[in-house]
Amino acid sequence: MYNVIVLVVKEGLTPEGCWVRITDLGDKCFAGTLLNEPNQDFGYHMDDTITFFLYRGEDGKNHLVSNMNETR
Known about the structure:
Layout (H helix, E strand, L loop, with lengths): L2 E7 L6 E10 L4 E5 L14 E8 L5 E6 L5
Parallel strand pairs: 1-5
Antiparallel strand pairs: 1-2, 2-3, 3-4, 4-5
């Protein structure tokens, strides 16, 4: 098992890094369990499962990001 920092983002909130334990690998995303309670109300809490993906930033570095906005 691997624990990673995932940047959690949601419109109207400040992006926040949270510890996540990877539990599943998909073709285009990962799934994992939140290991800490986020400081803001993203709608998810410690021990919830979230999905996230690999994003290459403008800085050329890879980041793990979870988009907490509702899909329409």
